[in-house]
């Protein structure tokens, strides 16, 4: 036993007793990057980065010795290689124990033992590097799916799944936000039972609990906002691998992966970095796509949505209203005698007046409603979850707000304008997009014909 320690340059030997006859299990640990270390320094092996070599003297003879050796190998580091020194006539079926077990005669001299040990360490390094390269290729192949997704609300759960696979963990959460709001818009959970998921969901739904902008890059944390959230949900957490996928911008999100007592090694961080880089790239592509899509749906003059977006929105909202039985209403409004503004003050003043009108209309409706410029001086507003009587009240409030407003056109001059508004609702005036819009449009023209600066229901006779 002493020769094993000498060959390992001072590593401490650990004997494991068994009844009246002590079993000679002597462990000596070395790594390619840190040299020989004592058994009480094994906690630093993960940081050192090299796979450990475990050297064991095996006497055999006692049937229990084989079981104890198997238990020692099972309890040892998962990525370790074992060099078993067989004493005298001892025999050992190394294939039964593990593919990473080598057996040699204990009669080797010290130089031969050191040479074999260094050779095994070198072989282990090569195997570890080969495994890492294979893992890297696998992770990169898995990450290719991110490039085909352009919706951030789907990308974050995908990144969470990829991270869990990359670092071989089961539990994690992705918390993400759309736009510049202070609240966390959405989250995705993996690996939690129903009780844990319910408790954690309640905590995460509390807006502003986790400041996503405070996270950057990749870090292993043992305390902080995520730990507080898990603690409040009654979920025990040791270490957390935190990966940020965004900053202060359109998208912001963090994925937190729960660790185990063994923590995270350098290889885990490198694998996580592969997923992070692909995820960030995919989110950038999604942002570019969203910007281009927004521009395709935005009116150049007023920056309100355009007719194309209006048609798509009305179609979608009719389907949603039909599915859930919710009311839906549409307003069509037109500026009265707006041609006089363009003719008398020029089109630049006319365009600025339209922009001012849009800002005024936006203050009259909710965030969930949709304001769009249909064309010229015609606008439409989609009122979700709004019945016909309520829509008429909203329309009249808009009409009065516009009539009371002074539109500044420069040099101390202002304009007074009025609008005529037609109102239609689903399902009363149609379950088809074109029917609903046409009903509101015709009601608006009836309001103009009746004297302007008024509202008209699609239910009223023409």
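^ Assign residues to that structure.
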């Amino acid at each position: 036993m002493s020769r094993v320690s000498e060959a390992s340059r001072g590593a401490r030997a650990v004997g494991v007793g068994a009844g009246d006859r002590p079993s000679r299990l002597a462990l000596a640990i070395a790594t390619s990057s840190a040299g020989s270390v004592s058994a009480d320094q094994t906690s630093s092996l993960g940081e050192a980065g090299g796979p450990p070599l475990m050297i064991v003297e095996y006497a055999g003879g006692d049937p229990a010795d084989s079981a104890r050796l198997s238990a020692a190998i099972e309890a040892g580091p998962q990525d370790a290689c074992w060099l078993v020194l067989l004493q005298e006539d001892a025999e050992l079926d190394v294939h039964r124990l593990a593919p990473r077990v080598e057996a040699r005669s204990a009669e080797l001299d010290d130089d031969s033992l050191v040479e074999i040990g260094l050779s095994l360490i070198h072989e282990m390094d090569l195997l570890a590097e080969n495994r890492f390269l294979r893992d890297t290729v696998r992770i990169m192949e898995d990450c290719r799916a991110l490039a085909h997704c352009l919706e951030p609300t789907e990308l974050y759960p995908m990144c969470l799944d990829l991270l869990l696979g990359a670092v071989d963990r089961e539990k994690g959460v992705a918390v993400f936000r759309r736009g510049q709001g202070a609240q966390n818009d959405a989250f995705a959970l993996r690996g939690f039972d129903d009780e844990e998921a319910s408790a954690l969901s309640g905590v995460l739904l509390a807006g502003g609990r986790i400041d996503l902008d405070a996270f950057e890059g990749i870090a292993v944390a043992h305390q902080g906002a995520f730990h507080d959230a898990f603690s409040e949900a009654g979920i025990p957490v040791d270490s957390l691998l935190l990966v940020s996928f965004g900053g202060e911008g359109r998208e912001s999100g963090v994925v937190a992966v729960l660790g185990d007592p063994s923590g995270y090694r350098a290889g885990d961080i490198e694998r996580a970095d592969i997923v992070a880089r692909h995820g960030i790239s995919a989110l950038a592509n999604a942002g570019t796509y969203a910007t281009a899509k927004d521009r395709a749906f935005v009116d150049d003059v007023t920056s309100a949505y355009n007719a194309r977006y209006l048609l798509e929105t009305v179609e979608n909202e009719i389907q949603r209203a039909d599915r859930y039985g919710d009311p839906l209403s549409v307003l069509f409004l037109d500026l009265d005698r707006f041609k006089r503004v363009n003719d008398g003050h020029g089109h630049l003043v006319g365009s600025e007046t339209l922009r001012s009108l849009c800002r005024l209309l936006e203050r009259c409706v909710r965030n969930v409603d949709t304001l769009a410029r249909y064309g010229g001086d015609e606008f439409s507003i989609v009122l979700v979850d709004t019945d016909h009587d309520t829509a008429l009240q909203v329309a009249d409030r808009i009409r009065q707000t516009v009539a009371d407003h002074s539109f500044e056109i420069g040099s101390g001059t202002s304009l007074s304008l009025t609008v005529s508004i037609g109102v239609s609702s689903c399902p009363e005036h149609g379950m088809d997009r074109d029917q609903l819009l046409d009903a509101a449009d015709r009601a608006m023209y009836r309001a103009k014909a009746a004297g302007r600066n008024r509202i008209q229901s699609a239910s009223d006779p023409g």
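The two ends are 106 Å apart (CA to CA).
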